[in-house]
């Protein structure tokens, strides 16, 4: 059997009919008024002046513009930060300000405003710094700016520390009691400042605000949903040259939350992961067509490099991880810092354990990225091991750290002594559906409204085909009452190798429309699978067996060529009754069982022995060119049938013996049974093997 990775929790009971799917989704998301929710527009955006210090910040910026002061926007290297810089830069440029921007290099500076950048700002003659998507915890850096009379305006949405920096103005929803909605991205705080500065002209930047909001995984409610609605419509007719180029280079059937999440935002993020976030900012602020063409090519190359680097790093991580770790800890100087977070998440998903991946620099300092399995609080785990760390931070599900290389092993031991106790994580499922009854128009309607996070349960589907795509993705063809549907699982081959054709499975998946060559089909995007049936996994290709077995996630027993008697198989199955998956991985035997039970072959050997009349078995085995096992078993068969007799060390042929049935030899009967099972496992159809073992299981 194949156990599910998650504990499934369905939000509603029973199978939901096709005409109630959308209404059930709305109910699950506590959306009472559909028309209001999906028509939320600029009237649903809250007044920017409800934010703490907004008027003060506006007045200071207007004074800087009037006096032609040099203004620095300092941002972050992720998609939210890049969009924040680009949005505010364009707004201030529109006002005619003397504006420059900067952002940290993730490999040199780490996150946020830093002292290297501060000293550079001082030398540039800047008199006003505006932070976007950072700054709320940069006390030391802002104190230094204050020393040289440079004002700082903070716009941020991250958690506030114990003490606020002494900035000229601080704009943050959690400092604003009168602001009605707190959970907005950094780019939305920047947009609010742009709104306060240029009013309705800021509507031009809905697209950037929308992309940053989606990329930072903000809740799609209140003014976030309003910005999604506004931003998607703006993006369809964007005036941003860089975004136009990005759409040209991205194959999108539809512009919705899914497209932004999985197509657009990752391209912007990739540059930051490689230390080249400035390329993405330049693309989003340029007004020059040639520069835009050059930059989009760089962005595409960065994205391709990031994907390749992720695959290489993931393979390296798998090759060195210890599967016996309760909390997986991987450390290497050759891992790329920009992708260790992605790799950690993929390790968590595959091995179902919290995972820490550390890359070590030339000074012996490790930078780590950690991801949680289930509800395990990894920040708490790190806090209990803080004596081994230089620094750490994050939240319960994702964290980062720095550590001396010499203390990594102690950290591994510390994490494993207290971690890894998390139970199976919960997977919330919107509803169970009958796949055969789903209307393609219903799925199109849902897809157009961006419910990309919807999860559906489908029971009792049969695997008809399976296929590997691009060497790393799994495609299953599933049958439901005669209808066939494609199901995809990206960046993993575990289901390809853990399932076989004919297996009946339950699947949790999202639903999308595949519009390949204008042929619309419903397609499942797999999130989890369970197979309660007894399984046989066919790994008879010895050349690829080692490659396959690392992907298998079933609770299994392995049967090889040493077990070839039915009674031994029954004993093995009985002892392992909880493990309902059997791996057939036979090694090549140098025995031809067909000859062992061939009457013609046995007759030839008997005639040869008659000509010899008397022999010692050990000398016979050395002199004759026959397979020694064949000769040995043949002599044993003839002895049991009364054709030969043994006197001390010598065998001799009896004269004038009567013919008898070979079935009267217990050795011959055993060899026939071995041949039957051997031929079944080595040469027979997979369906016959499965039927044989299934019958054995039922006899227990």
Produce a short descriptive summary:
The chain has 26 helices and 24 strands. It starts with 6 loop residues before the first strand and ends with a helix.
Give the second-level CATH assignment, the architecture of the largest domain.
Alpha-Beta Complex
What is the general shape? elongated
Which class of the largest domain in CATH terms?
Alpha Beta
Largest sheet: 5 strands, parallel
Strands in their spatial order, largest beta sheet: 3-2-4-5-6
CA radius of gyration is 34 Å
Class inferred from helices and paired strands: alpha/beta
Number of domains: 5
Portion of residues within helices: 40-55%
Q: How would you describe the oligomerization state of the chains in this entry?
A: single chain
Q: Say how many strands there are.
A: 24
Low-confidence segments, ≥5 residues, pLDDT <50? none
pLDDT average, as an integer?
Answer: 89
Looking at the structure, the CATH topology of the largest domain is inorganic pyrophosphatase (n-terminal core)
Number of helices: 26
Give the end-to-end Cα distance, rounded to a whole number of Å: 17 Å
Roughly what fraction of the amino acids lie in strands? 15-25%
């Amino acid at each position: 059997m194949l156990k599910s990775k998650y504990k499934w929790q369905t939000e509603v009971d029973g199978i939901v009919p096709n005409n109630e799917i959308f209404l059930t989704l709305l109910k699950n998301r506590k959306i009472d008024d559909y028309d209001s929710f999906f028509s939320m527009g600029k009237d649903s955006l809250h007044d920017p002046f409800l934010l703490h210090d907004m008027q003060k910040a506006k007045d200071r910026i207007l004074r800087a513009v009037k006096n032609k002061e040099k203004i620095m926007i300092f941002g972050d290297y992720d998609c939210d930060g890049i969009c924040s810089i680009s949005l505010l830069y364009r707004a201030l440029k529109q006002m005619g300000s003397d504006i420059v921007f900067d952002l940290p290099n993730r490999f040199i500076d780490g996150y946020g405003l830093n002292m290297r950048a501060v000293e550079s700002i001082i030398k540039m003659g800047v008199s006003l710094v505006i932070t976007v998507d950072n700054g709320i915890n940069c006390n030391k850096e802002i104190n230094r700016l204050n020393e040289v009379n440079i004002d700082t305006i903070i716009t941020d949405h991250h958690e506030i520390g114990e003490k606020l920096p002494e900035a000229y103005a601080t704009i943050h929803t959690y400092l604003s009691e009168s602001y009605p909605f707190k959970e907005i991205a950094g780019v939305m705080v920047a947009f609010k400042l742009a709104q306060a500065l240029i009013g309705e002209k800021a509507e031009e930047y809905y697209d950037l605000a929308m992309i940053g909001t989606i990329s930072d995984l903000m809740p799609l409610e209140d003014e976030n949903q309003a910005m999604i609605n506004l931003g998607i419509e703006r993006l369809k007719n964007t005036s941003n040259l860089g975004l136009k180029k990005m759409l040209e280079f991205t194959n999108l059937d539809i512009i919705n939350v899914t497209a932004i999440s999985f197509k657009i935002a990752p391209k912007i993020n990739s540059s930051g992961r490689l230390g080249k976030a400035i390329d993405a900012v330049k693309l989003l602020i340029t007004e020059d067509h040639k520069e835009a063409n050059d930059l989009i090519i760089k962005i595409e190359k960065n994205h391709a490099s990031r994907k390749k680097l992720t695959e290489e790093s993931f393979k390296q991580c798998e090759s060195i991880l210890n599967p016996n770790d309760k909390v997986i800890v991987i450390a290497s100087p050759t891992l790329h810092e920009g992708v260790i977070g992605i790799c950690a998440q993929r390790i968590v998903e595959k091995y179902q354990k919290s995972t820490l991946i550390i890359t070590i620099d030339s000074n012996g300092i490790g930078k780590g990225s950690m991801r949680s399995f289930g509800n395990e609080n990894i920040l708490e785990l790190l806090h209990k091991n803080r004596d081994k760390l230089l620094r750490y931070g994050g939240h319960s599900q994702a964290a980062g750290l720095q550590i001396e290389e010499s203390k990594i092993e102690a950290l591994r031991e510390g994490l494993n002594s207290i971690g890894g106790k998390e139970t199976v994580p919960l997977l919330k499922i919107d509803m169970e559906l009958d796949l055969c009854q789903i209307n393609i128009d219903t799925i199109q309607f849902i897809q157009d409204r961006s419910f990309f996070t919807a999860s559906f349960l489908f029971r009792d589907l049969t695997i008809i085909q399976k296929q590997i795509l691009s060497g790393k993705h799994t495609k299953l063809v599933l049958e439901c009452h005669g209808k066939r549907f494609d199901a995809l699982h990206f960046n993993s081959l575990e289901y390809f190798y853990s399932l076989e054709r004919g297996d009946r499975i339950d699947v949790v998946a999202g639903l999308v429309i595949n519009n390949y060559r204008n042929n619309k089909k419903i397609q499942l995007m797999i999130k989890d699978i369970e197979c309660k049936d007894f399984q046989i996994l066919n790994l008879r290709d010895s050349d690829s067996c080692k490659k396959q077995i690392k992907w298998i996630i079933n609770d299994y027993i392995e049967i090889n060529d040493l077990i070839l008697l039915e009674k031994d198989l029954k004993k093995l199955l009985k002892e392992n009754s909880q493990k309902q998956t059997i791996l057939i991985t036979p090694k090549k035997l140098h025995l031809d069982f067909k000859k062992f039970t061939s009457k013609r072959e046995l007759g030839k050997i008997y005639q040869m022995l008659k000509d010899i009349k008397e022999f010692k078995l050990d000398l016979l085995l050395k002199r004759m060119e026959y397979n020694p096992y064949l000769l040995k078993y043949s002599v044993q068969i003839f002895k049991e049938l009364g054709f030969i007799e043994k006197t001390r060390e010598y065998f001799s042929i009896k004269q004038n013996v009567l013919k008898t049935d070979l079935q009267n030899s217990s050795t011959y009967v055993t060899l026939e049974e071995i041949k039957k099972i051997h031929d079944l496992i080595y040469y027979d159809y997979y369906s016959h093997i499965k039927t044989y073992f299934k019958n054995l299981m039922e006899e227990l």
